[in-house]
Structure formats: structure tokens, C-alpha cells
């Protein structure tokens, strides 16, 4: 699938390249954009999942979305070329980054679309910055991820904190070793490895703990913008029953996909049509 990227995506060069964007008082993040069919085309902002980047998560989807929308994706802090966090990773900071990017580009309000970890960030973007959100699309995600008992949470937090005091060069060497360890001996294209090698290992650990703690059940049913849910029916990471519950809480239109958590990349023939339909539905209703 990765190897076929350059052959299938007509907006390859534009989306693959990207650029740095300075977010006032926040730092520099990496943004990828593809113009829509017209200057006034509606905007969809794509938020990637844990351990991915805007490119890795969304490259199969961009071409189809760009036929009707202006497409914008950023790398979240600690991921890829996103903001390099000097403090502990927080989902709330990611949501603030999204709002700052929308304001900096002058493209709001937008249809904010989140995959996996991008789902909580989408929810928090609406909660903290409703002025930038026209509607939401939630893919392979939930209103709650971790168990009620978070007895191992402090351990993960301690690991993340310890890594923050480890020299950055050492952290990067550890990350590269983990990425290159591939028991199935499946080589990855150079551009994929380049994306993964940009991660901040401490932020990845902290992000994992932040997702486990996330719970929007106290306020998620207050969302007052059009919503759609793309539910991955064979998902082993985010149980479909929680995805369905999230759709109910947000009164979302449901689009089902026969695939697991990696369906966005491994089976784009199944995922992309559902995503495009969900984005179009939210745009029409907003």
C-alpha cells in the first residue's frame, strides 16, 4: 500500500511536501494543504492518530477529498514535524494548536475530522474553540478509551517524564531502533521511515497515557454541530461498541467500514468512500 502511494494520489507533490507554519506563542508545526476545486471550497481539517503523522494517516484519502474540499492536515505536537513539546503532552494543547492553525490560515470554521487519537482532539477543539468548528467527523475513535482502573497510569507518566530528561539524541536512537525492529521483515519506503523518525519518543509515551485518561462522557452530548461517525467494524483497538456509543451521544450519521484500525491505509478502497460521504454529509448539514 505504501509503495503504491505515488502512483495513486494525484495531489502527491502538494500534500507530501508540506511546510512549516508558525503558530503565535505556540511554536512551529508542519502543515500539508491541497486546494479545493474552487477558491471558496469548504475546508476539511484532518487530525491523525497516535504514532502517525498527517501524511501517514491521510495520504490515501486526500485526492478524493480534494475534489470537493480544501484539505488541510497538521502533525500533532511530538509527532512527525509537529511542535516539539518542552512540557508533558496534553490533548488539550493539541486542540489549541488546531484552533491556532485555523486562525493563522484564515480558513474557519472548518469540518474537523479526527482518526483514533484525532477523535479526542476533534472533540476538545469543539469544546474549547467552537468558533472554528463547522462540523465534526469522528473515525475509529471513542468518547473514552482506557479502563476505569488506571493503576498503571503513573508508571507510564514516570516513563515519559524520565525520557524528557534523556538527551534528545539518545531518545531518537531508541526510537529508530524500535521502528527498525521488524520481526516480519517487511521493508518500509524511505518516506515512511523519514516520517516515523521525526517522532519525539517521550511525547508518544505521554500521548498514550493521555488517551487512556480521556473521557468526554460528561459533556460530549452537548455538541451542537453536525456530526458523522466512520465506524471500523473489525477494530480491535477501539471497540466498535464504543464507536457506536459515541455516534449516539453526538447524534452522528453513521458510516460503517468493514476493516480494522489500520483500514485507512491498508484498505482505502473501503475507508475512503465512507470518509468522503461522511465529510460531504456534515458539510451539507452545516
Report on the architecture of this protein.
- By secondary structure, this protein is of the alpha/beta class.
- It is built from 13 helices and eight strands.
- It has helices at 5-8, 12-17, 54-58, 62-65, 91-105, 118-128, 153-164, 168-180, 190-196, 201-213, 240-249, 263-266, 268-285; strands at residues 19-23, 27-34, 43-47, 70-74, 110-115, 133-139, 227-232, 253-257.
- An eight-stranded mixed β-sheet has the order 1-2-4-3-5-6-7-8, sandwiched between helices.
- A hairpin with a 3-residue loop joins strand 1 and strand 2 (27-34).
- The model is unreliable at 1-9, 148-153, 155-167 and 169-185 (pLDDT under 50).
Amino acid at each position: 500500500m505504501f509503495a503504491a502511494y505515488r502512483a495513486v494520489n494525484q495531489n502527491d507533490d502538494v500534500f507530501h511536501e508540506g511546510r512549516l507554519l508558525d503558530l503565535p506563542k505556540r511554536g512551529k508545526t508542519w502543515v500539508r494543504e491541497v486546494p479545493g476545486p474552487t477558491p471558496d471550497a469548504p475546508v476539511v481539517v484532518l487530525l491523525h492518530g497516535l504514532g502517525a503523522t498527517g501524511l501517514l494517516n491521510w495520504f490515501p484519502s486526500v485526492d478524493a477529498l480534494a475534489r470537493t474540499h480544501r484539505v488541510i492536515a497538521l502533525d500533532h505536537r511530538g509527532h512527525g514535524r509537529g511542535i516539539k513539546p518542552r512540557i508533558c503532552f496534553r490533548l488539550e494543547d493539541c486542540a489549541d494548536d488546531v484552533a491556532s492553525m485555523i486562525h493563522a490560515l484564515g480558513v474557519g470554521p472548518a469540518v474537523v475530522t479526527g482518526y483514533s487519537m484525532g477523535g479526542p482532539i476533534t472533540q476538545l477543539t469543539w469544546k474549547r474553540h467552537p468558533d472554528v468548528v463547522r462540523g465534526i467527523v469522528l473515525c475509529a475513535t471513542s468518547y473514552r478509551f482506557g479502563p476505569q482502573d488506571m493503576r498503571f497510569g503513573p508508571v507510564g507518566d514516570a516513563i515519559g517524564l524520565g525520557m524528557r530528561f534523556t538527551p534528545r539524541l539518545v531518545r531518537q536512537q531508541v526510537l529508530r531502533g524500535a521502528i527498525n525492529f521488524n520481526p516480519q521483515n517487511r521493508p518500509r519506503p524511505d518516506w515512511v521511515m523519514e516520517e516515523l523518525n521525526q517522532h519525539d519518543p517521550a511525547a508518544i509515551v505521554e500521548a498514550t497515557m493521555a488517551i487512556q485518561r480521556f473521557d468526554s462522557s460528561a459533556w460530549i452530548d452537548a455538541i451542537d454541530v453536525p456530526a458523522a461517525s466512520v465506524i471500523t467494524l473489525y477494530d480491535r483497538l477501539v471497540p466498535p461498541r464504543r464507536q457506536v456509543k459515541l455516534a449516539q451521544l453526538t447524534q452522528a450519521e453513521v458510516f460503517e467500514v468493514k476493516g480494522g484500525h489500520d483500514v485507512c491505509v491498508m484498505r482505502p478502497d473501503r475507508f475512503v468512500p465512507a470518509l468522503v460521504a461522511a465529510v460531504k454529509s456534515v458539510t451539507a448539514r452545516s
